[in-house]
Design brief:
It is built from 13 helices and 14 strands. By secondary structure, it is of the alpha+beta class. It starts with 10 loop residues before the first strand and ends in a 15-residue tail after the last helix. It binds S-adenosylmethionine.
Length: about 400
């Protein structure tokens, strides 16, 4: 038969598509695990890891004969459970991930006994997270594992049968987790599981293919075009964590971005309306025409500077001054989550003209910022570490000075 489910949209975790930034064009991907390193260790009794599916997989094929099956492990993450709707090959490789092979990997996540926030319902935007304590840049806000991971190729242009398989991903979870999943919002009527994926799931690459990840607690965060937190999704531990990207005061709503922020206000509003059904009334979107026009201009400049700084040909206008200007623009635009990228660019730009001291200083700041940056930025961590070990043997050293 066919899997016949419409394609969900998904809050993107894909750096090439709609992360805040895409700095990794010029750098090689590095350690994807940095995002969770600093969570404090708490000893807790833990259940044994199990890589065995707790329900017999049920499968369905598409037109080309590709099979997609529902795989559930109800013991995952200390009994929270997880369901995959993906290929057999991926279901096999998943077993080697830290999420399934490292004992205690989920002991500090999915714990919401004393969070620094509370859930409040705001007319016009549903539930949201509001800070109950003061948070500083880098502080952990929320970390959870997905209840569902769905291969995007398992979604086709029609409905019906496919929904039955989505339903299985849900039915096979432990009862408590089913309640949590159903308590997430759906912004359109339709199939209850499909619509929850549509409204809440994060899109990202997983084992070489695009998938949607449903993190039900993280899903409580509303969108802001100048968010005060930044998330990072670890595809090995399957932990999604959000950290403050600036100081957040008690009572303030904690927000993330659903989209690439380096787009004009009009573009942002169109996408948010189309994909999540709301008119963005964040501070930036409801500002004066003049302030919005200024912001659009700054964003255009930022996008151009990114291109220039990532361009290592002799015609590139990149320079340390240009990188410093980029950092100023991030601050002006309150794009605090992007500062790590700015420092990374600055470090390379200084090293490229042989200013090792400044290259080192910016590399340090880039690493400091790593925790509050998006996945693509964290990939740059290795790059900065290598540069700090030996700026003069790093590929960027004098790279622009030599071009003359
Ligand atoms: C991932 S959920 C966020 C949590 C949701 N508000 C709830 O009640 O569970 C996404 C949905 O929240 C609403 N939403 C998110 N950000 C919003 C915003 N800035 N303004 C209005 N509605 C928003 C939209 O309905 C959107 O489809």
């Amino acid at each position: 038969g066919h899997v016949e489910v419409e394609v969900p949209t998904g809050i993107s975790n894909d750096p090439t598509e709609s992360n805040l930034l895409n700095a990794s064009q010029i750098v090689r991907p590095g350690g994807l695990d940095e995002g969770v390193e600093k969570i404090p260790k708490v000893k807790k009794p833990r259940k044994k890891l199990s890589t065995r599916w707790t329900t017999k997989p049920s499968c369905v094929s598409d037109d080309s004969g590709q099979e997609f099956c529902v795989y559930t492990n109800s013991n995952f993450a200390n009994g929270r459970g997880i369901s995959f709707f993906t290929t057999e090959e991926i279901s096999e490789s998943v077993k080697d991930l830290a999420a399934f092979s490292e004992e205690g990997v989920h002991d500090e996540v999915n714990v919401f006994s004393d969070p620094p926030w509370e859930v409040r319902n705001i007319p016009g935007r549903g539930n949201g997270l509001f800070a109950t304590r003061k948070l500083e840049r880098g502080d952990l806000i929320i970390a959870d594992t997905p209840l569902g991971v769905y291969n995007s190729d398992a979604f086709f242009a029609d409905y019906g049968l496919g929904y039955q398989y989505l339903r299985k991903t849900y039915d096979q979870l432990p009862e408590e987790s089913r309640v949590i999943l159903m308590s997430t919002a759906a912004h359109s009527p339709g199939d209850p599981i499909m619509e929850r994926i549509n409204t809440n799931a994060f899109a990202g690459e997983f084992e070489g293919q695009n998938h949607f990840f449903l993190y039900p607690e993280t899903a409580l965060m509303n969108h802001d075009c100048r968010p005060n937190s930044m998330y990072y999704h670890n595809t090995s531990s399957l932990i999604h964590s959000a950290h403050a990207s600036r100081t957040i005061n008690p009572g303030e709503e904690i927000t993330i971005t659903y989209i690439n922020l380096l787009q004009s206000g009009t573009e942002r509003q169109e996408i948010l309306k189309m994909m999540w059904g709301f008119d963005c009334t964040c501070e930036l979107c409801s500002g004066s025409e003049l302030s919005k026009a200024r912001s659009d201009m700054n964003i255009e400049k930022i996008v151009q500077y990114h291109k220039d700084l990532a361009d290592w040909t002799s015609s590139s206008p990149a320079s340390p001054q240009l990188a410093e200007h980029l950092l100023e623009l991030y601050n002006k635009e309150h794009l605090y989550a992007a500062l790590g990228t700015g420092h990374m660019f600055a470090s390379l730009a200084f090293n490229a003209v042989g200013n090792v001291d400044m290259a080192f200083q910016h590399a340090e700041k880039a690493l400091e910022a790593g925790m509050v940056s998006s996945g693509s930025v964290i990939d740059d961590v290795e790059e900065m570490k290598t540069l700090m070990k030996g700026p003069k043997v790093h590929w960027s050293f004098m790279a622009r000075a030599r071009m003359g």
